[in-house]
Amino acid sequence: MKILVANLGSTSFKYRLFDLPAETQLARGGIDRIGQSASACFVEVGGHRAEETRPIPDHAAAVQICLDSLMHPDWGCLKSAEEVAAIGFKAVFAGNLSGVRIVDDPLLAKMEDLAEIAPAHNPMYARAMRQLRRAFPSIPLVAALETAFHETIPEANRVYAIPYEWKERYEICRWGFHGASHRYLSTRMGQLLGRDDLRVVTCHLGGSNSLCAVRGGKSQANTLGMSPQTGLPHNNRVGDFDPFALPLLMRQTGKPLEQLLQELSSQGGLLGLSGLSPDVRDLEEAAGQGHSRAKLALDAFVASIRQYLGAYMAVLGGADAVVFSGGIGENSRWVRREVCRGMEWAGLELDPAKNEAAKGEARISTDHSRVQAWVLPTNEEIVVARQSVEALAAAGIH
């Protein structure tokens, strides 16, 4: 069964084509600058790579170009578009319509209604899904909601201390996100260590960031709360923030609530603290040259990770492994080193040489460290592909 997994941006479309159950990746590709005069496209099938630049008006046209490329008579991997059993999406938020679902009108309406919770994701995904349903009515669309993995979190770890009817009536709680990544990392860690009862803290660190406490493959807590704007500082999003500061800011700046929220979600995080860049690579370089606010941003980022790491070890009653993933987790030796510094009290001892040399899947703790530390590249796409197959089976679609 061939599943096309789509990762959407406001002006981009990246995809991978998998053949399941073998989980073979048949192709990958992407299109940037959708809706502009010159969109850049590429596709890789086996050892062949093709690139071109052409105008592409919307995401439906982008998917059609993708399918045309995959059906190329000389090097394509599809004979017809009918071979694609479904298009799977790593969708973000639909409140109590969580889980993995065949895309339908109620789901799209819910995503649009909750757009203010995930403004960078929901409007774009809902719009593209509507386009694709019209353009490809014979191909089922599957939404693997980011909140699905966190449905196992105990209620005490999910609720806010608010009037309980707000949770019941308005769905206000800690939903958690980055579910596909945390699911993959905890599953892969179990495979590597040959155990299904592991206590793992998975650290997804990249453009947006979260930690997850996982016991036996089930989420127990996640740093992201009601929205993807919460928890750790992100590249340009605030993370945890006291809402009672907003009335003061409104009065003293004269800015309306909507503008302040937009600034918190686009000018906060590492960018806001440093005043320089949202990119950890830039901040590490600048901090090394004496840029004090770049150093402050990095220190605040690490401090937040360590606070949650300690808390999640308490949630799990200890840990068997700590996993680093995402663009920062996989590539920043400095962040990994600083997060693990002085953690011997918790049974975690980093091996400096292994940390420096780590590439791909790699253990970076010492041989005698009771808590193992690993670097693992995540693979959210294969999780979505697996979930899409399960959703089709549950819906009786073959």
CATH architecture of the largest domain: 2-Layer Sandwich
Q: Calculate the terminal CA-CA distance, rounded to whole Å.
A: 9 Å
Q: In total, how many beta strands?
A: 14
Average pLDDT works out at 96
Q: How many independent structural domains? A: 2
What do we call the CATH homologous superfamily of the largest domain? ATPase, nucleotide binding domain
User: Based on the structure, what is the oligomeric state of the protein chains?
Assistant: single chain
The main sheet comes to: 8 strands, mixed
Helix content: 25-40%
Strand order of the largest sheet: 5-4-3-2-1-6-8-7
Report low-confidence residues grouped into runs of 5 or more: none
Q: What general outline do the C-alpha atoms trace? A: globular
Number of helices, where a helix is a run of at least 4 consecutive DSSP H or I residues: 14
Model description:
The protein is of the alpha/beta class and 398 residues long. It folds into two domains: 2-145, 2-Layer Sandwich (Nucleotidyltransferase, domain 5); 193-380, Nucleotidyltransferase, domain 5, CATH 3.30.420.40. The chain has 14 helices and 14 strands. It has helices spanning 59-70, 105-113, 122-135, 164-170, 179-193, 245-253, 257-264, 269-274, 280-288, 292-316, 326-331, 333-340, 352-357, 380-394; strands at residues 2-9, 12-19, 24-32, 39-45, 48-54, 84-89, 100-102, 141-144, 199-205, 209-215, 218-222, 321-325, 362-363, 372-375. Strands 5-4-3-2-1-6-8-7 form an eight-stranded mixed sheet, with helices on both faces. It has a six-stranded mixed sheet with strand order 11-10-9-12-14-13, sandwiched between helices. The model has no long low-confidence stretch (mean pLDDT 96).
